[in-house]
């Protein structure tokens, strides 16, 4: 196998795509040291790789995971393929010394880009209901009527002129045809008939256009609403870890832009593209019929050159506009970052330094903005030059025919009017091209997002969970995070546990030992890699997600609230609850008096993610929400971690009363929370190391006591710090 002696490359990032390139590539071995910068993160890559059978293995620094799209057997493998001089790693994960440094980019960047056929796109654009299809049909009829009315304007105008300077029989031809059916006009009124037709054509064209707009706007908005609702549910059905690892702002942006792109493509197609094509066809046909094929050909070539020039220049302008938008985004980000760190700026007396940074960024924006304006000036001049050259040539030839007696004077008016008429929509071609291209890019990303297949899904034959006692069984459950192919991060290792119906089991262990994962597995946020979870003998994979999650109630450690009222947040698990029910649950959670102390009481808006409330208040609202739902199986994931001792004692007492006849699973750190449990399960590295009653485990002086003592020391340290 032959390798080039040297490949000179570098490390770059293009739109969150990491490109790692090495130097000194000498016949199968890479020796290299590179410093890699990404935002505020620095990586030092020191690699000594040996290539063997298209694979790389690290000899001194762990490994670098590589995903590539080379067309070779196996869609993914580690390493470099010879004969290729560039290697792109699409949103890859970079591991240096295993856990020393990790570079994760957004999950959205990892989505595979697919090509979607016309049928897939049309399924989003074309409505499914008959009523909307009829609206589209009538919109097209109104569009055709509007264009026919519009091109009749110059015909009425020339007939008006001819009726004044020539006999009626030499005119547009409407009067003689009316006389043939017995309708006659005095000669003096004939110009007024053509004048009326001229004005009526303009009015009817405007009327038909507005009728088309009003009809089709309903179609576009309804299509956007239906697609938004359908895709909203698709996103909520994605795996929870995908949504957690993705940036919520990016998901929201991709979703909103995708929905907007659907409306935009529909609007541009029906309101701009189709009308321009139809008008151009009618104008060309009319020119060919009234003036001659030569003028029609020149007009067609003018339009084609106009479109080609506009498309080519607009492509370049899109790049320049993107550079301007990037410069503006960087300037805005720098401004926001500087204001956010206003204290640090003052600490180090760096106002002038910040001004220099901001001014430099603004200068970059100024340069790109000027480039955009210059490119726009070039586009406008080029368009006008092409159009007016075509207009001049058409009028020159028409005038020549008139002077030779081969054509009438009204041909000059028809050519001039029709070409100027079609020139108006042509001015929008550049904007149309840019908007359509950007809309299809947004639609592509949107379809990639909603096309993600969830790993956790409901089986078609799934049945509702039938709860009789509330017995929970974990049978040989294994679960791990796929950090690498050969070194997965094991969370649960052959985990087996039975929670008898009506009993309270507490789970304790080190941070990261897999305690919270148990709750998420019960809710089927994840599925175990092997093993099974049963509730009353029914595998939770075989029951409907709705019935499963209706059976369970949880108070998580980190309670996240909606930016709505307190009453809305508490009643979220039971939307039909009355205000009295909400207040009763709040009293049980010890939050009622605090809520009534707010000016708006239960109508108080909690802010984004509940930022208007303290951690303890949010946790008690989460507890009240669980109490109100009154589920048959209770899960408490460190539900009192943000409460003081007095509040915790009150809540624990309520827990005990509430869960007296219910199966309860508690994840706890504090000894006071564990004491109400019938049995305690001690976790360490994904395995159960101890199990027993609180008293039994305390007397054993084993791992349980070590955990409790370490938590007590930490709690005292935190109190001293406060």
What's the short version?
One of its GO terms (cellular component) is mitochondrial inner membrane. The protein has 722 residues and is of the alpha+beta class.
Describe the overall structure:
With 722 residues, this protein is of the alpha+beta class. Among the domains are: 12-105, no CATH class; 113-279, ABC transporter transmembrane region fold (Up-down Bundle); 472-557 and 632-721, P-loop containing nucleotide triphosphate hydrolases (Rossmann fold), CATH 3.40.50. The chain has 21 helices and 19 strands. It has helices spanning 118-125, 130-165, 174-180, 190-236, 240-245, 248-290, 293-340, 342-347, 351-403, 410-426, 429-450, 515-522, 545-551, 566-570, 579-588, 592-596, 615-629, 645-658, 671-674, 694-700, 703-721, and strands spanning 12-14, 17-19, 25-26, 29-38, 41-52, 55-58, 88-89, 94-96, 101-103, 472-481, 489-499, 504-509, 530-535, 538-539, 552-555, 633-637, 663-667, 679-684, 687-692. The chain has a six-stranded mixed sheet, sandwiched between helices. A four-stranded antiparallel sheet has the order 3-4-5-6, with no helix packed on it. A four-stranded antiparallel sheet has the order 11-10-13-14, covered by helices on one side. Strand 16, helix 18 (645-658) and strand 17 form a beta-alpha-beta unit. Helix 6 (248-290) packs antiparallel against helix 11, helix 7 (293-340) packs across helix 11 (429-450) and helix 15 crosses helix 17. The longest helix has 53 residues, at 351-403. Mean pLDDT is 75; it is low at 1-105 and 168-172.
């Amino acid at each position: 196998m032959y390798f080039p002696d040297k490949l000179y490359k570098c490390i770059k990032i293009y739109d969150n795509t990491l490109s790692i390139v090495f130097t000194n590539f000498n016949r199968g071995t890479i020796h290299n040291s590179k410093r890699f910068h990404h935002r505020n993160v620095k990586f030092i890559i020191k690699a000594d790789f040996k290539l063997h059978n298209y694979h790389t293995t690290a000899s001194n620094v762990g490994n670098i995971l590589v995903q590539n799209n080379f067309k070779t057997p196996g869609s993914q493998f580690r390493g470099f393929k010879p004969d290729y001089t560039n290697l792109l790693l699409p949103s890859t994960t970079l591991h240096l010394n295993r856990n020393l440094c990790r570079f994760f980019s957004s999950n959205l960047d990892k989505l595979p880009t697919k090509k979607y056929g016309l049928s897939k796109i049309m399924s989003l654009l074309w409505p499914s209901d008959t009523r909307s299809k009829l609206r589209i049909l009538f919109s097209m009829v109104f569009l055709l009527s509007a264009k026919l009315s519009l091109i009749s304007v110059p015909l009425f105008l020339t007939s008006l002129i001819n009726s004044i300077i020539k006999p009626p029989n030499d005119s547009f031809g409407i009067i003689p045809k009316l006389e043939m059916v017995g309708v006659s006009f005095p000669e003096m009124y004939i110009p007024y008939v053509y004048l009326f037709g001229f004005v009526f054509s303009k009015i009817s064209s405007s009327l038909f256009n507005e009728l088309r707009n009003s009809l089709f706007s309903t179609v576009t908005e309804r299509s956007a609403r239906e697609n938004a609702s359908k895709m909203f549910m698709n996103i909520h059905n994605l795996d929870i870890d995908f949504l957690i690892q993705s940036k919520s702002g990016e998901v929201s942006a991709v979703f909103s832009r995708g929905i907007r792109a659907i409306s935009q493509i529909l609007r541009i197609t029906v309101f701009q593209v189709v009308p321009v094509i139809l008008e151009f066809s009618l104008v060309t046909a009319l020119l060919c019929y009234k003036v001659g094929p030569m003028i029609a050909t020149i007009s067609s070539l003018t339009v084609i050159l106009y479109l080609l020039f506009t498309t080519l220049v607009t492509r370049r302008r899109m790049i320049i506009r993107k550079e301007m938008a990037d410069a503006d985004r960087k300037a805005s980000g720098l401004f926001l970052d500087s204001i956010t760190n206003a204290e640090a700026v003052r600490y180090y007396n760096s106002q002038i330094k910040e001004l220099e940074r901001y001014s430099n960024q603004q200068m970059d924006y100024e340069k790109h903005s000027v480039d955009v304006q210059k490119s726009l000036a070039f586009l406008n001049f080029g368009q006008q030059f092409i159009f007016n050259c075509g207009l001049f040539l058409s009028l020159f030839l028409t005038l020549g025919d008139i002077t030779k007696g081969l054509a009438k004077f009204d041909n000059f008016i028809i050519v001039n009017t029709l070409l100027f008429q079609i020139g108006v929509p042509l001015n929008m071609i550049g904007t149309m091209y840019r908007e359509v291209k950007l809309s299809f890019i947004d639609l592509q990303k949107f379809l990639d997002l909603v096309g993600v297949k969830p790993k956790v899904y409901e089986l078609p034959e799934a049945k509702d969970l039938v709860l009789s006692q509330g017995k929970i069984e974990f049978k040989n459950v294994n679960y791990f995070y796929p950090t690498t192919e050969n070194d997965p991060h094991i969370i649960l290792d052959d985990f087996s546990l039975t929670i008898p119906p009506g009993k309270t089991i507490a789970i304790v262990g080190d941070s990261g030992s897999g305690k919270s994962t148990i709750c998420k597995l019960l809710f089927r946020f994840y599925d175990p890699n092997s093993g099974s979870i049963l509730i009353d003998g029914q595998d939770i994979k075989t029951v409907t997600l709705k019935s499963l999650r209706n059976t369970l109630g949880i108070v998580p450690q980190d309670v996240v609230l909606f930016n709505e009222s307190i009453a809305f947040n508490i009643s979220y698990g039971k939307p039909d609850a009355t205000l009295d029910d909400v207040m009763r649950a709040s009293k049980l959670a010890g939050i009622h008096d605090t809520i009534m102390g707010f000016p708006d009481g239960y109508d108080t808006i909690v802010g984004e993610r509940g930022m208007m409330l303290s951690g303890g208040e949010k946790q008690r609202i989460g507890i009240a929400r669980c109490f109100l739902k009154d589920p048959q199986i209770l899960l408490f994931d460190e539900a009192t971690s943000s409460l003081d001792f007095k509040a915790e004692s009150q809540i624990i007492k309520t827990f005990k009363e509430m869960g007296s006849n219910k199966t309860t699973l508690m994840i706890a750190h504090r000894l006071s929370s564990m004491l109400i449990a019938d049995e305690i399960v001690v976790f360490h590295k994904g395995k159960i190391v101890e199990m027993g009653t609180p008293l039994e485990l305390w007397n054993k002086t084993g791992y349980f006591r070590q955990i409790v003592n370490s938590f007590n020391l930490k709690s005292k340290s935190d109190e001293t710090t406060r």
